[in-house]
Amino acid sequence: MQEHADKIPQNIKDQINGDITSLNEAITTEDQDKIREALERLKNSSMEIGKAIYSQSSSDQSGEQQEQPQEEQKEEPKPEEEKKEEEKK
């Protein structure tokens, strides 16, 4: 979570930290049902990290793809240069 903290919304961070605390408390009670429930909640909330990172990565990549056609347009010869090349032939 620390590695991608900038890509994870604060509400997800808070939820996961709360679920970790709940799991630690459940472990101390040694009640297997509480441990399973707390572990399941933590597992589900941790999936939100992946979703947040993936959606952030997808939007970053789509932004890069949109920039590429603009660069290609800059490299195209200008009409004046095309005329000069035709005159040389």
Secondary-structure map:
Elements: H1 10-29, H2 32-75, H3 79-88
Helix pairs in contact: 1-2
Description:
The protein is 83% helix and 0% strand. With 89 residues, it is an all-alpha fold. The protein has one domain.
Brief descriptors of the model:
rod-shaped; 0% strand; 3 helices; 89 residues; mainly alpha
Low-confidence stretches: none
How many strands?
A: 0
Tally of contiguous helical segments:
3
Q: Mean pLDDT across all residues, rounded?
A: 76
Estimated share of beta-strand residues: under 5%
Helix content: over 70%
Tell me the radius of gyration.
Answer: 26 Å
First and last CA, distance:
63 Å
Q: Output the structural class.
A: mainly alpha
Query: Any idea what the shape is?
Result: rod-shaped
Q: Quick summary of this structure?
A:
This protein has 3 helices and no strands.
